[in-house]
Design goal:
The structure is a homodimer of 213-residue chains. Chain A is an alpha+beta fold and 213 residues long. The first copy, chain A, has nine helices and four strands, in the order E-H-E-H-E-E-H-H-H-H-H-H-H. In chain A, strands 2-1-3-4 form a four-stranded mixed β-sheet. In chain A, helix 4 packs parallel to helix 7. The radius of gyration of chain A is 17 Å and the shape is globular. Chains A and B meet through helix 3, helix 4, helix 5 and helix 6 of A and helix 3, helix 4, helix 5 and helix 6 of B.
Chain lengths: 213, 213
């Protein structure tokens, strides 16, 4: 398998965690979003959406992160990301899709670029926008985790939900989001970060991170 | 089952189509988004995200449309929304999640309200924003449909993808989006609209549509 991604792209980060948790070998191919490599013909001929991650697996280019995650679990059922129980599967997906559908898009790079270039918004205003949408999903997410009586992970082992949560929390911290009223979210964050699978998947440890030691 | 929704909410519309395609009986409970009923305590105590649709089913309140769709197919395997073949399942999800994750959020009512209230954007500017993000996903979606050699539906029968596509196309038409260069998308739209399941699910035919004849 080859994962074409960018170290700081939250959707690429999801896939790296998932592949690590499932113990699947993959080659990481950096795509430079800063030079718009993903909009060049060489890339868009393989992925018309012009976005990362692109997962080259099972003889095919796969280009939507949530569909990639669902496929990984169906094609490689060992070490499942989703639990076996029907209700637990619903719960994991509810929280994961809250992040993927409500939160991801308004915070994605193209939207931030639009606000800067078309609306002339400053870095401070972008920060406010970012934190506004973060709160709108991370506040109720924390409430849901409290209702569920979550421990270190949503279920026994980290999976589908944590794969989506950690990259979003990483981004939120970059934008100075205040997590002081979110004990459940931060407990899960810390428990995940202690695991080697999450450490290997972290943006700090990717070859295309220019600050990598 | 009870579906708490709003006639013009695209995610509520997804669920109505899915329930109709699966032949599942449900009671429709209107939630008035114009009076912010979804932000009131009576609603948020059941759904902390304060959003529709809320699906009351299997003894539980379910609150994320994509997780609801995945659950419906697992809990009620008759008349599946997703095809049986692993690769076809990936394809259906790739296109459905492109709509649900990239397209839905920047076009969702809260974002449009933010642009109006915080940034003072006019109705014309909102229209431009809307069509910009539509094109960004609907253009490559059309290219993907062309690559796949799609007929009247993505596969033999409408399912997971069409459930997500039709509400988005309905919204796009409200905002005057130009579909003249999208023969595949519009062929699927027309084939779906000819079916009674899609007609019953249409916003025009919901009890909370004030213009309903």
């Amino acid at each position: 398998m080859k994962l074409h991604g960018y170290y700081r792209s939250s959707t690429s980060y999801r896939l790296r965690i998932a592949l690590e948790l499932k113990g699947l070998d993959y080659e990481y191919v950096p795509v430079n979003l800063l030079t718009s490599e993903q909009k060049g013909e060489a890339f868009t001929s393989r992925n018309p959406f012009g976005s990362v991650p692109l997962l080259e697996a099972g003889g095919r280019d796969r280009v939507q992160s949530m569909a990639q995650l669902e496929w990984l679990d169906e094609a490689h059922p060992d070490k499942p990301l989703l639990p076996a129980d029907l209700e637990d599967r619903y719960t994991a997906r509810e929280l994961a899709y809250a992040i993927a559908t409500e939160l991801h898009a308004p915070l994605n790079l193209p939207v931030l670029k639009y606000l800067t270039n078309e609306y002339g918004k400053s870095q401070d205003e972008i920060g406010e926008w970012y934190r506004h949408w973060l709160a709108r999903t991370l506040d109720p997410l924390e409430a849901r985790l409290a209702q569920l009586g979550t421990g270190d992970f949503l279920f026994e082992r980290p999976g589908f939900f944590e794969v989506c949560l950690l990259p979003q929390v990483y981004n939120a911290r970059r934008f100075g989001f205040d997590f002081s009223d979110k004990p459940h979210t931060t407990r899960i964050e810390q428990a995940c970060q202690a695991l080697p699978e999450f450490q290997r998947a972290h943006p700090d440890n990717q070859p295309d991170n220019p600050e990598r030691s």
